[in-house]
Amino acid sequence: MSMTSSLRPQLEQVRRAWRASPLPRFFAWWGAELGALLPAGLRARFGGGAAWHLLERVDADWRLRRDGSSEALAQWSDELDASTQQAALADGLRGVDREDLRLALCLPAAQVLRRPLLLPAAARDTLRQVGAFEMDRQTPFRPEQVRYDIRETGAPAPAGRIAAELVAVPRTTLDPLLGRLGQLGIAVDAVDLGVGAGRSGVNLLPPEQAPRRARPRQRLNLALAAAIVVLLGLVLGEWLHNRREALDQMQAQVETMRGEAQKVGALRQQLQETAGAAGFLAERKKNTSSALAVLQDLSQRLPLTAWLERLSVDNTGQVGFQGQSPQAARLVDALKDSTVISNPNFQGTIQADPQTGKERFYMVAQLRKKTPPKPARAGAAPAASSGDKP
């Protein structure tokens, strides 16, 4: 109990901050819009919400009506026994969900003292303490002589101040009514002031006399809220799991594509090297004479009395050939006009072969590079044939 009392100011501060924020209006609008989408039967079944009913003392009778309506739902005499009065009250509340039912004792305006106040904005969190302090100044009563409440009205106020209203009723007026209701076994949730067909919104009921209500729907709502939180956590976990799996698959695909890209790069490099080598060979073949051309040229220029025993052409274009001839020294003159090789000369000494009676020689030369034909000049006239007349 002491813990609840110590936490009451903080809870009241939270409630006031909640009511002053735009969130209640937003959720009320949102709930109404969502409720409008439901069928009428479901709206009637799950609508819920506090259903306030006002209990008034009129002379020696009790009168019950719905908050906001002036039509009486039930009326009975206070001289009846307790069970009959409870039955009359229950008959007036027939069809009302007991968990949503809220019953307020509504006092006439003539029995209640009301005083408007302008308070500093800092007093918003301690209105009840401020009300006790202002009681001596605003009313002829002391705080212990009255049941009072103070509420913020929301009326225009100067900067830094708030508009409030102090509502008080003498205990000599209220306590007998509460005592009589206690004898009848009727518990009220609030004591308020009647304003037109409704109520002002204050609560003059002492906190220690507030009824304790079992709220199974609230427990169900809490269980549903916990289930929603658990399901939301599971959904988020599943979403994260799916995202992680998708990321792993993407990373595996990226690794596969990276390996394929490396293979493609290696193939491209190999293709470039092969194309370069092929181009080099083609260019070399284009610019140099073949061994067959060298052999043909040597066959045409060497005398018939000479023959070759060996012919070689290396990668540098050097030609080496070995053979026999009756007069080997004259071979240099026979080859100096060759269009295929250049710089023919002997390597080593010329030696006589005792078997053939000829001179054995070994010569080296260098392949000539082919000179590409010069392109014809544009506009040049073709050469005139010998038969053409000038």
Query: Can you tell me the CATH topology of the largest domain?
Result: Dna Ligase, domain 1
Number of domains: 4
- Supply the number of helical segments: 9
Helix content: 40-55%
Oligomeric form: single chain
Question: What spatial order of strands do you see in the largest sheet?
Answer: 3-2-1-4-8-9
Pfam families: PilN (PF05137)
Region (Disordered): 369-390
Transmembrane segments: 220-240
Biased composition (Low complexity): 376-390
Description:
With 390 residues, this protein is α+β, with helices and mostly antiparallel strands. It folds into 4 domains: 16-47; 52-213, Dna Ligase, domain 1 (2-Layer Sandwich), CATH 3.30.1490; 229-287; 291-367, Alpha-Beta Plaits, CATH 3.30.70. It has 9 helices and 14 strands. Strands 3-2-1-4-8-9 form a 6-stranded mixed beta sheet, covered by helices on one side. Strands 10, 11, 12, 13 and 14 form a 5-stranded antiparallel beta sheet that branches. A 3-stranded antiparallel beta sheet has the order 5-7-6. Strand 6 (146-152) and strand 7 (161-170) form a beta hairpin. The longest helix has 72 residues, at 216-287. The protein is rod-shaped and about 170 Å long. 15% of the residues are buried.
